[in-house]
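Preliminary data (for renewal application), FE2/S2 (inorganic) cluster complex.
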Amino acid sequence: MTHSVPASDVPEGSVTGAGRYAVGNNGTYFAVSRRCRHLGADLAGGSIARDGCLVCPRHGATYDVTTGRMVRGPQGAFAKVPGLGAGFKALTKLLPLARGTVTEKGSTLQID
Ligand code: FES
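Predicted structure:
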């Protein structure tokens, strides 16, 4: 299914939601499935790290949006659970976030 969002809703350094995708702009537009692999927080409410990764709004897990893999596990109280972050990171090697294709159509972004 195709989703669309106005490009003006996704200025550089921001993330928003479009259907089942979190759509962001880290200098390049990207779209990934929006449920965090940790406890399912909505990644559309996340933020962009300085290195361009997508950061979960709930516990700070960080995703490489080009591969969909978690590159840093959950932080805060969860970071103190040995192996937990590593477990989720391993999971996303097998089950990375789904990635959508973003196409610019005039002032609209189309996500497939
Ligand atoms: S729900 Fe995303 S890091 Fe916990």
